[in-house]
What does this fold into?
Amino acid sequence: MLRNYFTTAFRNIRKNKLYTLINVIGLGLGVSCCFAQYAILKHELSFDNFHQNTDQIYRIVEHYAGDYGMEYSAFLPNPMGHTLNDELTSVAAIPIQGPLDAKIKVRTGNNQQVFSEQNNIIFSNSNFLKYFNFPLIDGTHTNELNEINQAYISEKIAKKYFNTPYATGRTLHYGNDIHLKVAGVLKDIPYNTNIHFDLLVSYPTIRKIYPEWTANWGATWQGTTYLVLNKNSSPELVERQISEVTKKHLSAEDFETTKYYLQPLKEVHTDDQYMSAPNYVPPTVALIGSALTVLMILIVSILNFINLATSQSIRRSKEVGIRKTLGGRKSNLITQFMIETGSLVLIAGILGLTIGQVLLDLLNQAVSPFPFRVTYDSSIFLFFVILLVVVTILAGIYPSLVLSRLSPSQAIRNQTLLQKSGHFSLRKLLTVIQFAVANMLIIVTIIATSQMNYIHSKDLGFNQSNVLLLHFSDQATKDLSYIKTDLASLDFVENATWCMGPPQTGYSWNSAYNLVGQPGSDALYTSLKFIDGDYLDTYQIPLIAGRNIESKLLPDSSQQILVNEEYVRRLELTAAEAVGRRVNYNGQYTGTIVGVVKDYHLEKLSQAIRPTTFAFQPYNMNDINLKLKTNDMMGILPVLEEKFRTYDPEGVFEPKLLSEQIEQSYLFENALYSTFQVFAFLAIVIGLMGLYGLVNYMVMKNRKPISIHKVFGASTRQIFVKISREYLALIVIAFIISAPIAAYIMIHWLSNFSYHIAINGWHFAISMVIVIAISMLTVGSKSYQAANSNPADILRHE
It folds into this structure.
């Protein structure tokens, strides 16, 4: 019996090739999104779950009550980690400094190689490898990270430096005079961790390199701290102990405005409240939104299947009548149709697995600079089985019941139950839902496109075009001011500046500041950018008060500084009033404001403009930015490389265009935007398949009335209007449902950007036009076919 069911099922699949193709593609697209989304969610929710005792590990986070509301950050004062380790006995503190960039030199005999490592070097103590499970493949770990000039490297880096994973005992040269001994080699760091690194250097080493900054409670330079609590300790108790420690080290003002809390390790990757952190945190709204979108696409796929399956009821009603006349029972018919549905779903599932992997590969490629790699694992097969069973039941049960309930006389005369529904039609309801989802995704995509275009075209407050970035090592043979002058003299260079990083690339320090002479004033926080006197001209940043800084250090301790408008706004001064005022930084440094520059976007547009200080500190400036006169990069790079090698023979020549770096900083937003484009396209395709099924059903059901109209002189246009009018009403209803939902979603999404577009009526009008145009083409083609059929072929048996 079972064999007969499958034989009949595959016979019907072969017989109805178009029906099979549409169903397989529709369901395949739907389940492919589910497979891809499952892999992404599983990856995102698996971060750091491979560590032992994860329930006892917490990250310290900071809540700062600033002038503009509460600010949340995972960056802490630099000395906090090792101070807590010394003063608290109920916890084990894991201070982490980084991730940082550096040039690493490796010497083999008389040969030397220089490697540029970016955002993959961290410094920590021996608790790091004691409590975090990053297994060793070579060497041992005891207290090496509590000793100076010790390092662990990943297997990938070991092969890169030494062509072997067994590199224990080798030496790395960090900076000018830091010689690091490789204490061990770690298995390659997994992607699903919030602590990404390839070089792990002992904490005493960074305290030697930067003794002032690592001891400065007013500085937050890439510093985070994890705590491992004893089983008898509670987070609340430890938070009170942290407060007691910080009270001794922070100023009274800072202690009142800054509080520290413990965040469980399992929440570090999912709590987007702390976006100011060294780890990337996917916005919760993006994860939830993508999951809900995929669920809607799957539902639309199932509804599309139901629409098409029930539209086949007319074709198969005689088959049902004959089966029932010959003694077929209702359960036999249900089993037959469920097996057919299951067969189609299985084929669609196999197709979906393939398409899903393609989608994941495209996503991995789109966000390749991020530590993000997602693929299927063994659990996908269990999810595959569960999903196919659920989809088979949801998609097959209604059509099976519809067909199996027909009486033999009804079935043979083609009088399906669907014809008795009057004005109400479940099929129309399903079509409205399908088009509501498609409409909503189109609106979302249009608004997201407008926002991304706004980001790419918005005036950032500086000129980013044709700016080439060069980074020199500390071993450059000449003073960088000399190198800058030499490079500026080249024919293809319009201007040059010597600085610590360009705008919008994350290169800045942070510091507390307050006016000198007003010790009772609240401390504020500023970004620190180190520049020379040509920075403003190179980037065409307007000076609105005072003068520019000079490219020289003053003999006394008073540093000349520039500040931006937001800086003086926080001080409740005008630009003119701020010029000449002296400002204190972290209670250690003093600067005199000599000029105020117009606000520009130091960070991404998702971040509000922050107070910014510009100062000349040549010992922190290793970059030269060149404003070029030409776009011919291939022609000028050999000349620049020759100059670079002359001055920095041990450095790494890695020229970068500022515009490309800024574009790269929006990779996640662009990937999210592209994802919604794909989802919108899939929803439209599946929706059109459902519409095709509905139109096909209606045309088949109304063949005789259409033929009679034709006999009495109805034109093709009149028949098209008669058929399309009903579907146009369904599209309008779907739009009325979807537009408010899409508007609500996008208003919430746009709120993540400090600078964003306003939602206008044309965003919705374009969506409506797209859906109507595509739908009418689909309806029109089927209407034209019905209107041009020969009435005699249809009415001859009446």
Summary: The longest strand covers residues 91-108.
